[in-house]
Design brief:
The structure holds two protein chains of two kinds. By secondary structure, chain A is α+β, with helices and mostly antiparallel strands. Chain A is built from four helices and five strands; from the N terminus they run E-H-H-E-E-H-H-E-E. The two termini of chain A are about 15 Å apart. The mean pLDDT of chain A is about 90. Chain B contains ten helices and five strands. By secondary structure, chain B is an alpha/beta fold. The chains are: A alpha+beta, B alpha/beta. Chains A and B meet through helix 1, helix 2 and helix 4 of A and helix 8 and helix 9 of B.
Chain lengths: ~130, ~280
């Protein structure tokens, strides 16, 4: 698997969510994603980036365009140094929220991408890796 | 810190016209006089030099926050304001002062030719003073730009939420761009107010111009629709494009309680049917 290009974008404040979405849209277009896939990926980015700001207290988004024997994909890593998620199973339950949202952001984002990996521990921040193939 | 000596004052005074000429020359060479009238440039440079001389003469020291430099500070604030409004960038604005350094150093070098120690001291002193003024200019410039951006944001907030009347009793709200919480608050308020003002029975919210519908946007929509219903009116969401519809399904959003249509024309047709209005070709 080759990494074609990569980069990092800060996600510190609410406005950065918009910028992260724009970056994701640009990258997905570069990968040649179809409109539906692109919209799904951008929406997932919107959810995860907002979680990074609201619950993680800000962090970064690493992106890379990967080439797996001709299959092109976009992989994004959202990482923060926030409080972490104490109960992963609960956090991945539809409709459960620790804030004031609908409780569908994390689970919804998981359904919108092809690969989803959640790495977190209380007090050690959160790291979410998502991949969508074209 | 070494104070500026009277000699420096004399040197500047004696060479004033040459200094101004070289200074304006440097400004022009760097494009820092673009769109400015020649007369204005001359007047501004002469004014700044006069203020500097006054400051030195009154022993105001090198701290530009001192009361002795109040006039100079005010002059620079006015200057950087006007530059910001003319669309100059911060570099060009600060260059007004930096461009003076070269010519001024030459003058001092000439004057203190036989006193290297004084020359070094005076150069450092003048340099520090001019740097402080340049910093002050940039700071003011930044503030002006921030004020411009803030005003634009506020204008955008107003601009992007026009509530239009489509028919007697039917209002439409075409939403455009990002629905961050502050904007959706304004949207909701203006729509609810117009419903009261016009006594409308049906409101159509068109989301064709909203590129991403995520859970936060959906939550705002649900809240708005609930509020509209509480006021006794009905709401139709239009402009749900295929890719948005598929995304909403995967997100797991339940918009079952909402009436949605793919485009505004379908929404209007539905609204008219509900009001008992039928249109026919003549």
């Amino acid at each position: 698997m080759n990494v074609r290009s990569s980069g990092t974008q800060p996600i510190r404040v609410e406005q950065d969510v918009v910028l992260a979405r724009q970056t994701a849209r640009k990258l997905a277009t570069e990968c040649g994603m179809r409109l539906v896939d692109l919209t799904k990926m951008v929406t997932a980015v919107s959810e995860l980036a907002r979680n990074t700001v609201v619950y993680g207290g800000g962090g970064d988004m690493d992106w890379e365009i990967i080439d797996d024997f001709g299959r092109i994909g976009l992989r994004l890593v959202f990482r923060d140094e926030g409080p972490g998620i104490p109960d992963i199973k609960l956090a991945l339950t539809d409709g459960w929220t620790s804030g004031g949202g609908l409780g569908l952001g994390l689970t919804g984002a998981r359904r919108l991408v092809d690969e989803f990996e959640l790495d977190t521990a209380p007090g050690e921040g959160t790291r979410i890796t998502v991949t969508r193939w074209t | 810190m070494a104070a500026l000596q009277d000699g420096t004052l004399d040197a500047i005074k004696n060479q004033q016209s040459k200094l101004l000429g070289d200074w304006i020359g440097a400004l022009e060479a760097n494009g820092a006089t673009r769109n400015l009238k020649e007369q204005d440039v001359q007047q501004q440079t002469a004014e700044f030099l006069r203020l500097i001389l006054d400051g030195i003469r009154n022993d105001s020291g090198n701290n530009i926050a001192a009361p002795g430099w109040a006039d100079t500070r005010r002059f620079l604030e006015g200057l950087s304001n006007s530059r910001a409004l003319l669309g100059y960038d911060s570099h060009q604005t600060a260059y007004f002062i930096f461009a003076l350094k070269g010519p001024l150093f030459t003058v001092l070098q000439d004057y203190y030719r036989d006193q290297p120690a004084s020359l070094a001291e005076q150069l450092l002193s003048v340099s520090e003073l001019l740097d402080s003024f340049a910093m002050h200019t940039i700071r003011t410039y930044q503030k002006t730009r921030e004020a411009v951006i803030k005003r634009q944001q506020e204008e955008l907030l107003e601009l992007s939420t026009p509530v239009v009347k489509l028919w007697d009793g039917v209002l439409a709200l075409p939403m455009i761009g990002t629905l961050d919480s502050q904007r959706s608050q304004v949207v909701m308020e203006s729509l609810l107010q117009r419903i009261v003002d016009t006594g409308s029975e049906i409101a159509i919210i068109d989301i064709t111009g909203v590129p991403t519908v995520d859970t936060l946007v959906a939550q705002h929509l649900l809240k708005t629709v609930t509020a509209i219903r509480l006021m006794g009116a009905d709401c139709i969401i239009s402009g749900v494009r295929p890719q948005i519809a598929q995304t909403i399904v995967h997100l797991g959003l339940d918009l079952g309680g909402l009436v949605t249509k793919a485009n505004l024309s379908d929404a209007l047709k539905l609204a008219l049917t509900r009001l008992g209005i039928s249109l026919a070709k003549v």
